[in-house]
């Protein structure tokens, strides 16, 4: 039997794909009966589309795989707490359970800013497990943004040296 850690490792592998192409390293997988039926990683910079978040891509792939928009018996694993848009997609696709790694204090809607996934005003709520492989998920993002800032500083310095 596969564990939450195993499937979060798969989401981390997706996040690494995003990092390799210069995207914010966030990855997601949708699991049904211990089988991954959808995978996704951030492609927002690549596509220049605001909606190409890891969760939305994984949900779309899972829906195609099973031939239904209802993902009622699935679990979505994602490296970062879902944002409002992704939380909406999770609710509307009827994902049963969400497991995430790192909290997102700026946009997280599964406990950080609010908890859309367990709001009983909606017609669907999700089970939520947070903090699975939190250190690894957090480190991916921290390292990515530190490297991005360092590159920007270097470019700025190079520009000022040539002036």
Order of helices and strands: HEEHHEHEEH
- Based on the coordinates given, report the CATH architecture: 3-Layer(aba) Sandwich
In the sheet with the most strands, the strands line up as 2-1-3-4-5
Relevant CATH superfamily: Cytidine Deaminase, domain 2
- Which stretches are low in confidence, meaning pLDDT under 50 for 5 or more residues running? none
Number of strands: 5
Please, what is the average pLDDT? 95
If helices are DSSP runs of H or I spanning 4 or more residues, what is the number of helices? 5
What does this structure look like?
The termini are far apart. The protein has a single domain (4-161), classed as Cytidine Deaminase, domain 2 (3-Layer(aba) Sandwich). It contains five helices and five strands; from the N terminus they run H-E-E-H-H-E-H-E-E-H. It has helices spanning 4-20, 44-47, 54-66, 84-92, 134-162; strands spanning 27-32, 35-41, 75-80, 97-102, 127-130. The model has no long low-confidence stretch (mean pLDDT 95). The chain is of the alpha/beta class.
